[in-house]
Amino acid sequence: MDVDPSLPMGQEKATTVQNMFDKIAPRYDFVNRVMTFRLDVRWRKKTVKSLSLPPNSVVIDLACGTGDFCCELEKEGLNPLGFDFSMGMLNASRSTSPLAQADVLQLPIHSGVIDGATCGFALRNLTELPAFFQEVSRVLKKGGRVGFLDVAEPENRFLNWGHHLYFDRIVPKVGGFFSDKAAYSYLPKSFAYLPPHQEISEMLKNAGFRNVKRQLFAPGSVQLFSGEKI
Q: Which residue in 56, 200, 65 sits closest to 130, CA to CA?
Protein backbone atom coordinates (compact mmCIF):
# COMPACT_ATOMS: atom_id res chain seq x y z
CA MET A 1 0.00 0.00 0.00
CA ASP A 2 1.24 3.50 -0.86
CA VAL A 3 1.44 5.64 2.26
CA ASP A 4 1.38 9.43 2.07
CA PRO A 5 5.03 10.50 2.49
CA SER A 6 3.84 13.26 4.83
CA LEU A 7 2.66 10.65 7.34
CA PRO A 8 5.21 9.72 10.04
CA MET A 9 6.70 6.23 10.17
CA GLY A 10 8.46 4.06 12.76
CA GLN A 11 9.38 5.69 16.06
CA GLU A 12 8.30 9.10 14.76
CA LYS A 13 4.82 7.67 14.18
CA ALA A 14 4.69 6.20 17.70
CA THR A 15 5.68 9.52 19.27
CA THR A 16 3.27 11.50 17.09
CA VAL A 17 0.35 9.20 17.91
CA GLN A 18 1.10 9.26 21.64
CA ASN A 19 1.30 13.06 21.78
CA MET A 20 -1.79 13.47 19.61
CA PHE A 21 -3.98 11.26 21.80
CA ASP A 22 -2.67 12.91 24.96
CA LYS A 23 -3.86 16.21 23.49
CA ILE A 24 -7.34 15.18 22.35
CA ALA A 25 -8.15 12.91 25.32
CA PRO A 26 -10.39 15.34 27.28
CA ARG A 27 -13.03 15.55 24.52
CA TYR A 28 -12.30 12.30 22.69
CA ASP A 29 -15.46 10.43 23.70
CA PHE A 30 -17.74 13.38 22.97
CA VAL A 31 -16.25 13.98 19.51
CA ASN A 32 -16.48 10.24 18.70
CA ARG A 33 -20.19 10.20 19.51
CA VAL A 34 -20.82 13.27 17.38
CA MET A 35 -18.81 12.07 14.37
CA THR A 36 -20.26 8.53 14.33
CA PHE A 37 -23.81 9.51 15.34
CA ARG A 38 -23.30 7.13 18.31
CA LEU A 39 -22.85 4.17 15.96
CA ASP A 40 -19.47 3.51 17.59
CA VAL A 41 -21.36 2.33 20.69
CA ARG A 42 -23.25 -0.24 18.61
CA TRP A 43 -20.07 -1.43 16.87
CA ARG A 44 -18.38 -2.09 20.20
CA LYS A 45 -21.40 -3.98 21.52
CA LYS A 46 -21.36 -6.22 18.44
CA THR A 47 -17.63 -6.81 18.84
CA VAL A 48 -17.99 -7.88 22.46
CA LYS A 49 -20.88 -10.20 21.52
CA SER A 50 -18.75 -11.74 18.77
CA LEU A 51 -16.19 -12.93 21.34
CA SER A 52 -18.75 -15.43 22.69
CA LEU A 53 -16.80 -15.81 25.91
CA PRO A 54 -18.28 -17.14 29.18
CA PRO A 55 -18.80 -14.78 32.16
CA ASN A 56 -15.71 -13.79 34.16
CA SER A 57 -13.38 -14.40 31.21
CA VAL A 58 -10.35 -12.11 31.29
CA VAL A 59 -10.19 -9.87 28.21
CA ILE A 60 -7.45 -7.38 27.39
CA ASP A 61 -8.45 -4.20 25.57
CA LEU A 62 -5.46 -2.95 23.64
CA ALA A 63 -5.02 0.75 22.86
CA CYS A 64 -7.95 1.04 25.27
CA GLY A 65 -8.09 4.83 25.15
CA THR A 66 -10.74 6.19 27.52
CA GLY A 67 -12.10 2.74 28.29
CA ASP A 68 -15.13 2.43 25.99
CA PHE A 69 -14.46 -1.23 25.23
CA CYS A 70 -13.69 -1.95 28.89
CA CYS A 71 -17.10 -0.55 29.85
CA GLU A 72 -18.85 -2.77 27.29
CA LEU A 73 -16.90 -5.81 28.46
CA GLU A 74 -17.87 -5.06 32.06
CA LYS A 75 -21.56 -4.91 31.08
CA GLU A 76 -21.26 -8.40 29.57
CA GLY A 77 -19.89 -9.83 32.81
CA LEU A 78 -16.31 -10.08 31.54
CA ASN A 79 -13.16 -8.95 33.34
CA PRO A 80 -11.27 -6.40 31.22
CA LEU A 81 -7.72 -5.17 31.54
CA GLY A 82 -6.87 -2.05 29.54
CA PHE A 83 -3.52 -1.04 28.07
CA ASP A 84 -2.68 2.17 26.22
CA PHE A 85 0.39 4.14 25.15
CA SER A 86 -1.25 7.48 26.01
CA MET A 87 -1.38 8.48 29.68
CA GLY A 88 -3.72 11.31 28.72
CA MET A 89 -6.30 8.85 27.43
CA LEU A 90 -5.95 6.64 30.52
CA ASN A 91 -6.44 9.66 32.78
CA ALA A 92 -9.69 10.45 30.94
CA SER A 93 -11.02 6.88 31.31
CA ARG A 94 -14.56 6.21 32.57
CA SER A 95 -13.87 2.52 33.20
CA THR A 96 -13.47 1.04 36.68
CA SER A 97 -11.32 -1.80 35.31
CA PRO A 98 -7.54 -2.00 35.87
CA LEU A 99 -5.72 0.13 33.27
CA ALA A 100 -2.00 0.50 32.60
CA GLN A 101 0.29 2.44 30.31
CA ALA A 102 2.10 -0.01 28.06
CA ASP A 103 3.36 -0.64 24.56
CA VAL A 104 0.91 -3.17 23.13
CA LEU A 105 3.76 -4.69 21.11
CA GLN A 106 5.40 -5.70 24.41
CA LEU A 107 2.67 -6.53 26.89
CA PRO A 108 3.54 -7.02 30.58
CA ILE A 109 1.61 -10.31 30.63
CA HIS A 110 2.68 -13.96 30.93
CA SER A 111 2.13 -16.23 27.93
CA GLY A 112 -1.08 -18.20 27.52
CA VAL A 113 -3.12 -16.68 30.37
CA ILE A 114 -5.74 -14.42 28.69
CA ASP A 115 -9.17 -15.48 27.38
CA GLY A 116 -9.78 -12.74 24.82
CA ALA A 117 -8.60 -9.47 23.30
CA THR A 118 -10.22 -6.42 21.74
CA CYS A 119 -8.86 -3.35 19.98
CA GLY A 120 -10.93 -0.46 18.71
CA PHE A 121 -9.88 1.76 15.80
CA ALA A 122 -6.18 1.53 16.59
CA LEU A 123 -4.70 -1.01 14.18
CA ARG A 124 -3.71 1.77 11.79
CA ASN A 125 -1.95 3.63 14.59
CA LEU A 126 0.41 0.76 15.41
CA THR A 127 3.92 0.67 13.97
CA GLU A 128 4.04 -3.11 13.35
CA LEU A 129 0.81 -5.03 12.73
CA PRO A 130 2.32 -8.54 12.35
CA ALA A 131 4.25 -8.07 15.61
CA PHE A 132 1.07 -6.90 17.33
CA PHE A 133 -0.88 -9.98 16.24
CA GLN A 134 2.00 -12.22 17.34
CA GLU A 135 2.06 -10.55 20.76
CA VAL A 136 -1.70 -10.98 21.20
CA SER A 137 -1.37 -14.63 20.19
CA ARG A 138 1.41 -15.10 22.75
CA VAL A 139 -0.67 -13.96 25.73
CA LEU A 140 -3.90 -15.76 24.75
CA LYS A 141 -4.87 -19.22 25.91
CA LYS A 142 -5.62 -21.88 23.31
CA GLY A 143 -9.11 -21.09 22.04
CA GLY A 144 -8.81 -17.44 23.07
CA ARG A 145 -10.92 -15.06 21.00
CA VAL A 146 -10.13 -11.70 19.40
CA GLY A 147 -12.24 -8.85 18.03
CA PHE A 148 -10.43 -6.00 16.28
CA LEU A 149 -12.42 -3.01 14.98
CA ASP A 150 -11.11 -0.44 12.53
CA VAL A 151 -12.17 1.76 9.65
CA ALA A 152 -12.81 0.48 6.13
CA GLU A 153 -13.67 1.83 2.70
CA PRO A 154 -17.12 1.05 1.27
CA GLU A 155 -16.84 -0.98 -1.92
CA ASN A 156 -19.86 0.71 -3.52
CA ARG A 157 -18.65 3.65 -5.60
CA PHE A 158 -21.35 6.06 -4.44
CA LEU A 159 -20.95 5.10 -0.77
CA ASN A 160 -17.17 5.38 -1.14
CA TRP A 161 -17.55 8.92 -2.48
CA GLY A 162 -19.77 9.86 0.45
CA HIS A 163 -17.40 8.21 2.88
CA HIS A 164 -14.44 10.26 1.65
CA LEU A 165 -16.47 13.45 1.52
CA TYR A 166 -17.41 12.99 5.16
CA PHE A 167 -14.12 11.76 6.59
CA ASP A 168 -11.77 13.86 4.47
CA ARG A 169 -13.73 17.14 4.54
CA ILE A 170 -16.26 17.16 7.38
CA VAL A 171 -14.48 15.19 10.14
CA PRO A 172 -11.49 17.61 10.31
CA LYS A 173 -13.90 20.55 10.62
CA VAL A 174 -15.99 18.89 13.32
CA GLY A 175 -12.87 17.76 15.18
CA GLY A 176 -11.33 21.21 14.84
CA PHE A 177 -14.46 22.88 16.20
CA PHE A 178 -14.77 20.65 19.26
CA SER A 179 -11.15 19.60 19.81
CA ASP A 180 -7.95 19.78 17.72
CA LYS A 181 -8.01 20.35 13.95
CA ALA A 182 -4.54 18.91 13.30
CA ALA A 183 -5.40 15.63 15.04
CA TYR A 184 -8.70 15.19 13.24
CA SER A 185 -7.04 16.00 9.92
CA TYR A 186 -4.46 13.29 10.62
CA LEU A 187 -6.97 10.59 11.62
CA PRO A 188 -8.72 10.30 8.20
CA LYS A 189 -5.32 10.21 6.49
CA SER A 190 -4.15 7.43 8.82
CA PHE A 191 -6.38 4.95 6.96
CA ALA A 192 -3.52 4.80 4.45
CA TYR A 193 -1.48 2.88 7.06
CA LEU A 194 -3.98 0.02 7.06
CA PRO A 195 -3.16 -2.88 4.70
CA PRO A 196 -5.93 -4.42 2.54
CA HIS A 197 -8.26 -6.62 4.57
CA GLN A 198 -6.97 -9.77 2.85
CA GLU A 199 -3.47 -9.03 4.15
CA ILE A 200 -4.74 -8.38 7.68
CA SER A 201 -6.59 -11.71 7.67
CA GLU A 202 -3.43 -13.45 6.46
CA MET A 203 -1.39 -11.78 9.21
CA LEU A 204 -3.83 -13.11 11.80
CA LYS A 205 -3.59 -16.62 10.39
CA ASN A 206 0.20 -16.43 10.36
CA ALA A 207 0.11 -15.34 14.01
CA GLY A 208 -1.72 -18.52 14.99
CA PHE A 209 -5.41 -17.73 14.60
CA ARG A 210 -8.07 -19.83 12.89
CA ASN A 211 -11.65 -19.15 11.83
CA VAL A 212 -10.52 -15.66 10.88
CA LYS A 213 -13.48 -13.63 9.64
CA ARG A 214 -14.09 -10.08 8.48
CA GLN A 215 -17.45 -8.41 8.98
CA LEU A 216 -18.44 -5.03 7.55
CA PHE A 217 -20.75 -2.68 9.42
CA ALA A 218 -23.05 -0.37 7.49
CA PRO A 219 -22.41 1.60 5.40
CA GLY A 220 -19.19 -0.37 4.89
CA SER A 221 -16.93 2.14 6.60
CA VAL A 222 -16.10 -0.06 9.61
CA GLN A 223 -14.71 -3.60 9.68
CA LEU A 224 -14.41 -6.23 12.41
CA PHE A 225 -11.74 -8.93 12.34
CA SER A 226 -12.38 -11.93 14.56
CA GLY A 227 -10.57 -15.19 15.14
CA GLU A 228 -9.62 -17.92 17.58
CA LYS A 229 -6.16 -18.83 18.91
CA ILE A 230 -5.05 -22.26 17.68
A: 200
